[in-house]
Amino acid sequence: MKHNIPYSVSINLRSFGSTPYLQLPSGTGKIQFQKTMVMLAKISDKNAKMFYEEMLLNMESTGQLPQTIVLITHENEKVRAVAQKWSKQYTVIMDTASEGSGEEWNNPVLKKTGTDSSIPSA
Fold first, then answer.
1. What does the domain layout of the chain look like in residue ranges?
2. Would you report the helix, strand and coil content of the chain in percent, each value rounded to 5?
3. DSSP state, 42?
4. How many CA within 13 A on the CB side of residue 51?
5. Mapping DSSP to helix (H, G, I), strand (E, B) and coil, where does residue 24 land?
6. pLDDT higher than threshold 60 for residue 113
7. Alpha helices, DSSP H, located in 52-99
8. Cα Rg of the chain, angstroms
9. HSE of 120 in the Cβ direction (CA atoms, 13 Å)?
């Protein structure tokens, strides 16, 4: 936000309209950050999900890919294949920490403050 780097957010939850998944178009600054937070706050486990790979392929077919792509997901063969294909033309970063063993939450700072018990499990 501080450096006004444009970004967009896509989430594999069903949506109505021309884009079949939740998508926040590219933007910058505080307004974009606020829109992102509002979008994330509205997400519920009751939302209908779509296959992540289906969302990625839809993004590719509509030409909605930015120069740098950060994929936050579990890594499987289909996602890895898409990421490898895209990495020939774009910068692709895979973030799979959310699917880890849970050890990333064993932070000594959290243990000292006692706040580690308030972290919801993913």
1. 1-66, 67-122
2. 40, 20, 40
3. T
4. 7
5. strand
6. no
7. 52-61, 77-86
8. 16
9. 1
pLDDT over 70 at 85, yes or no: yes
Residue with tokens 């880890």: 100
Q: Quote the CA–CA distance of 62 and 19 in Å, as a whole number.
A: 10
Cα–Cα dist 51/54, whole Å? 5
Supply 86's token pair: 């895209």
Place of tokens 């120069």: 67
Residue 119 has pLDDT above 70, yes or no: no
| Structure tokens, 42 | 């509205």
pLDDT above 70: percentage of residues in the chain: 78
SS3 22: strand
Angle (CA) 56 23 54, round 5°: 20
Nearest-angstrom CA–CA distance, 51 and 69? 18
69 within 8 A of 44, measured Cβ to Cβ: no
Tell me the C-alpha distance between 79 and 12, whole Å.
13
- Bin 83: left if φ > 0, else alpha if -120 < ψ < 50, else beta: alpha
